[in-house]
Amino acid sequence: MSMLQGSSFKMPEGHALPQSIHALETSPHLRPCDFSFAPAEMAARLAGREGFIWLDSSLAHPGAVSALTAEPVEVLEGHIDRDWEKVRTALAAPRAAAGGLYG
């Protein structure tokens, strides 16, 4: 059974954390990133923005992952041990088109 560090939340047997988040592909607010910055440098640039969050695997090898985000369009509130259905529902909801010539 997997456990998120710093939490009592345990993943149910047979479930795993997602390898990618579809919001990266469907968000109408997606902006290109300059990957010449290290995660700590990018975090320093984003730190003053509303809703800034930095999730980092803290691994010192090629599998390391850093996810930085700010200025959320929507915020889900709940308890990590009880409210995963809110997350599942939000991720399953159809996304509105971003607008423009093709949608």
Mean pLDDT: 71
Strand order of the largest sheet: 1-2
List low-confidence stretches.
1-9, 17-26
Q: What level of helicity do the residues show?
A: 10-25%
- Helices, by number, come to 3
Largest sheet: 2 strands, antiparallel
Q: What separation lies between the terminal Cα atoms?
A: 42 Å
Give the gist of this structure.
The chain is α+β, with helices and mostly antiparallel strands and 103 residues long.
Protein traits:
103 residues, alpha+beta, 3 helices, disordered N terminus
Describe the structure.
By secondary structure, this protein is of the alpha+beta class. The chain has a domain at 37-92. The chain has helices spanning 23-26, 39-46, 84-92; strands at residues 53-56, 66-69. Strands 1-2 form a two-stranded antiparallel ribbon. The longest helix has 9 residues, at 84-92. The chain is extended and about 35 Å long. It starts with 22 loop residues before the first helix and ends in an 11-residue tail after the last helix.
Topology record:
Layout (H helix, E strand, L loop, with lengths): L22 H4 L12 H8 L6 E4 L9 E4 L14 H9 L11
Antiparallel strand pairs: 1-2
